Amino acid sequence: PGSGAAARGRGSLGGMSREMAVDGVDESELYPIAILIDELKNEDIQLRLNSIRRLSTIAVALGADRTRCELVPFLNDSIDDEDEVLLAMAEELGKFVPHVGGAQHASCLIPPLETLCAIEEASVRERAVASLNSVAGALSAEHLLAHFVPLVKRLATADWFTSRISACALFSVAYPRVPNGTRAELRSSFKALCRDDTPMVRRAASSALGGFAAVLEKELIKPELLPLFVTLSSDEQDSVRLLAIENCVALGKLLSREEAQSAVLPATRSAASDKSWRVRYCVAEQLVVLADALGQQVAHSELVPAFVKLLRDHEPEVRTAAAFQVTGVCERLTGIGEGGSGGGSADGAGAAGPVPLLQ
Length: 359
Known about the structure:
There is one protein chain. The chain is built from 23 helices and no strands. The protein is an all-alpha fold. Helix 2 crosses helix 4 and helix 13 packs parallel to helix 16. The longest helix has 17 residues. The protein starts with a helix and ends with a helix. The N terminus is likely disordered.
């Protein structure tokens, strides 16, 4: 992979290291920069990695104009490299806005990051998405609408599933800063990803659902997102279903107590008895925050029976996760740690569920 990047590099950056003469600057000071530029197209992966990690140094020496017009296009043409190099590139590009001339030129960083969003290696994609979100934060509302929103739409409808996975984590950044018409388009795109044929895309959409709900208009959460939440929480793939618990917590914080109980409780109840031990494990891990989201009365009537079952689960990992929650669950049922002792029932039944089982 490195040789292909090197061959193209000779065409696009080949003259850079020979054109480093700058008025008033000693040639000896620029020589190390010229070496770094040459190493960008070296066949040795360690040399390329070293140079990528010092892209900011190269950019400062080249100046904003040449960084935009030569260095960034070269990097975009070099994305057939080793994953380690691409990971470093994705990280560096997220810090590149000042080096390309500031926010007004930040959109030039979108093409290489978009290409990185399609890479098969998950860590590269995740870093590219994080960098894109950072770049989006620097864009003006006008540039966000003109450059970033089309990027999200392209990724969300791409043929290759890795691009669609990457798209899922970009909606929550764009949504609050676009007009209502564009918001409707983004909601439609997100719904399509939640119903994607590829389980990994549905998993990514489920993982992003809580963040998207946090920026959505409150009156739209129930009609727009709750149906998606219900569908994802009953997905045929356990890798998708196990994220339902995190979404239970996220939605529970955004909805009223009554809405949370009617929408979140059925999914919690189902997950606690799921056939997959990994899903039950997630329930056990999140019991305390679920109790906070659903309220003490529901926690006592619904979560305690589920908690007891998890403590008796036939999988040791599930029992262990549940055991770590005993103190937190009992505190919430008796009011300890909630600001006083009045939160429990008069007869002390608040902790009656799990405590006898531990004796």
